[in-house]
Amino acid sequence: MITKGSNQRNKKRHILVCLIIALLTITICLLVRKESDSLFRIFPSEKGFSGNGNAKFKLKQIHRHGVGSKHEWHQKLEVDADFVEQAGLLYERQVRINQKTYDEPLWTNHHEFATENPFAYEFDISDDLLDMKRMADRSPEFIEGYSEFALSSPEMAAKVQIDWIDEKVIVPNITDKKTEVSLALMSSNAYVRIPHTGDWRNISRPWNRSESGGFGWNDDGLRGHVFANEKDNIVIISIKGTSAQGLPGSGVDETTVNDKINDNLLFSCCCARVSYLWTTVCDCYTKSYTCDEACLEKELRKKDYYYSATLDIYKHVRKDYPNATIWATGHSLGGALASLLGRTYGLPTVSFEAPGELLAAKRLHLPFPPGLPSYLEGIWQVGHTADPIFMGTCNGASSSCSVAGYAMETSCHTGRVCVYDVVKDKGWHVNLLNHRIHTVIDDILNQYEEVATCVEPDPCIDCYNWKYIPEKGASSTKSSSMTKTTTHTSTGTPTSSCVARNWFGLCTRYE
Ligand SMILES: *[C@@H]1O[C@H](CO)[C@@H](O)[C@H](O)[C@H]1NC(C)=O
Ligand SMILES: *[C@@H]1O[C@H](CO)[C@@H](O)[C@H](O)[C@H]1NC(C)=O
Ligand SMILES: *[C@@H]1O[C@H](CO)[C@@H](O)[C@H](O)[C@H]1NC(C)=O
Ligand SMILES: *[C@@H]1O[C@H](CO)[C@@H](O)[C@H](O)[C@H]1NC(C)=O
């Protein structure tokens, strides 16, 4: 039997050990931060540089990053004349085959942007300056170290003093139609399948031919296309979106399986546990409308998913272009990942038709500047009212998303939303086909005389009928009797047991 005395001694020792660990972690955090401070502040592009006005951007690199068991793989291809030529030939062939199956090209139908070769295309971009509030230290060491720390010790992380600075940042001129179209074309460019040839450089561990099944490594993972202007002082990373099987018009690629897993992880209330019929993508569901929050947060951050792969691609691009201003863009899943990346590192970001990513941003504890109005965030979400994925209405048992096995349950966005109301203006019907990037470019962005005004989104709550508990089985909560519906308005009262979050989104108080 353990006596009371030894019990108390054990307790004291336990507290002491905890305190020592905490102090060590904070010291390391502060040290890392000191070092990276000096690295960061010399960026000339972020000091006094006043933009380029108009510039032409070209594809410079293609990254592919493994996920799942191949999450350590990261390869890069520098786009040179040889590659452009080969890729052009391959594209011609793809279009020919595609015409038989989809009767539409992969790129765009519109004559104004027609090209024989999307890999050689020149994108017209105009830039602008925006006052942004960002973390003073945005080095990967600090940001990732800090968010790891926040995940494991939320209370202590909340007490670490973070420096925020106000600065003028070069951002895309989002009021310029040509710029918006170019960014959408870049997002579309990331979907175009790349040839299996070319001089891929192994960035992470050597590419193992026998492990990859012997025929190259296109079958898996995340793709990022990197564009730069002539001066190399603005670089744009475009993240590829979902290639979905069963979703009309989104194309089929070798990445389909992983795209679906990541969609279901990022945009569902709880691991895509929609009903008992669904295969879940993680094991955080505890019981009826009850989900383990800590489990979800760990899951999202795992190295073998797309979010982590996106950060890796960014880190590498930042090494290659240390003096450049980096922006992010993407369509659909790619847009949401771009937005999560942008929020992580304070990068100006423009997404197209992205599903609601606010919930994922909170679960990942991404920096939300304290007391900051969202117009200072430098994140723009372009979308339209006839796209059920952007509007967050592609759910419910009979929706095309659910039928195809996608649990797109979220609808809340971060940053500013720039919405084309095609339902009102053009009488369009809500249809998944309208989610396609070509439809968006050809029939919306290019058709409207004026670009959509970007506004702060309405207050919004996702998954309001779910309870999120701190740890699996930690407390018994009564199950909600509400039926399973999600909302994209703020009409629902949140019954989630997380009642307070700190500035970086961490749950600090449970009901
Ligand atoms: C942004 O684009 C608009 C429309 O083309 C233009 O009038 C404005 O001057 C541009 N802003 C900058 C800073 O170039
Ligand atoms: C990448 O790794 C693979 C397998 O180890 C190797 O065959 C290939 O030559 C490497 N590529 C480069 C450019 O080093
Ligand atoms: C490649 O993968 C195979 C199978 O997993 C393994 O046996 C082999 O040692 C690996 N080669 C290298 C160079 O890592
Ligand atoms: C970045 O700027 C620094 C300081 O101005 C310079 O020394 C360095 O060569 C530049 N790097 C690149 C890749 O242009």
From TrEMBL:
InterPro entries: AB_hydrolase_fold, ATG15_Lipase, Fungal_lipase-type. One of its GO terms (cellular component) is multivesicular body membrane. It is a single-pass type II membrane protein. One of its GO terms (molecular function) is phospholipase activity. Gene3D superfamilies: alpha/beta hydrolase. Residues 473-495 are annotated as: Disordered. GO terms for biological process: multivesicular body membrane disassembly; neutral lipid catabolic process; pexophagy; phosphatidylserine catabolic process; piecemeal microautophagy of the nucleus; vacuolar protein processing. Pfam families: Lipase_3 (PF01764). It catalyses: a triacylglycerol + H2O = a diacylglycerol + a fatty acid + H(+). Keywords: Autophagy, Endosome, Glycoprotein, Hydrolase, Lipid degradation, Lipid metabolism, Membrane, Signal-anchor, Transmembrane, Transmembrane helix. Its EC number is 3.1.1.3. Residues 475-495 have a biased composition (Low complexity). It is found in: Endosome, Multivesicular body membrane; Prevacuolar compartment membrane. Lipase which is essential for lysis of subvacuolar cytoplasm to vacuole targeted bodies and intravacuolar autophagic bodies. Involved in the lysis of intravacuolar multivesicular body (MVB) vesicles. The intravacuolar membrane disintegration by ATG15 is critical to life span extension. Binds to both phosphatidylinositol (PI) and phosphatidylinositol 3,5-bisphosphate (PIP2). This is Putative lipase ATG15. The gene is TDEL0A07500.
